[in-house]
Design brief:
By secondary structure, the protein is of the alpha/beta class. The chain is built from six helices and five strands. The protein binds adenosine-5'-diphosphate.
């Protein structure tokens, strides 16, 4: 049976931490769907199309990987896509409480859907998209956090923001 996993998130933008998790997930599941949240409460810097484009550029060559967008409830999307698991990254203890709550709520809504937590390489354990954006805003070097293509897109975005 084809085991399908969904890796949901805001990906604003994708970082090496996300890439690490995607590679690990791809090594265990037959198909991994990276699902970009359209209704994120985080007021993303990038549009959904831009976030999907960056993901495609960075991990598009991984076999059996799909990039999609997700609007409603994760459990509904999982049923619609015939997925067995939800992938989440666990960086530090600070992630745990929120992730546990989400995993348990999702299990309550659909007990067949299994949340799988993956730990990134420790060099990415302090990394998130917000810190990358903050650094970039003040001209910090972000090359060890995001791939070249993403670096360029961030710079472009910052330049456009300055202009408006
Ligand atoms: P969300 O809005 O769901 O927090 P993110 O794009 O920030 O979306 O993260 C999506 C998933 O990727 C979450 O499970 C998060 O823990 C994980 N993640 C983000 N950054 C890293 C990282 N540096 N290492 C491992 N997992 C990460």
């Amino acid at each position: 049976m084809n085991k399908i996993a969904i890796y949901p998130g805001t990906f604003d933008p994708i970082t090496y931490g996300h890439v690490d998790i995607i590679q690990r997930a791809a090594a265990i599941f037959d198909r991994v769907i990276v699902a970009v949240a359209t209704n994120s409460q985080k007021r993303p810097l990038f549009t959904v199309a831009e976030r999907m484009d960056m993901i495609r550029h960075v991990v598009g060559d991984i076999p059996h990987l799909e990039i999609d967008q997700i609007e409603g409830l994760l459990v509904d999307y999982a049923v619609e896509r015939g997925a067995h698991a939800v992938i989440r990254g666990l960086r530090a203890v600070s992630d745990f409480e929120f992730e546990l709550q989400m995993a348990l709520v999702n299990r309550k809504l659909n007990e067949k859907l299994i949340t799988v937590f993956l730990m990134p390489h420790e060099k990415y354990s302090y990394l998130n998209s917000s810190i990358v954006k903050e650094l970039a805003q003040f001209g910090g070097n972000i090359e060890c956090f995001v791939p070249k293509y993403v670096q360029e897109k961030i710079k472009e975005k910052m330049r456009n923001h300055e202009r408006h």
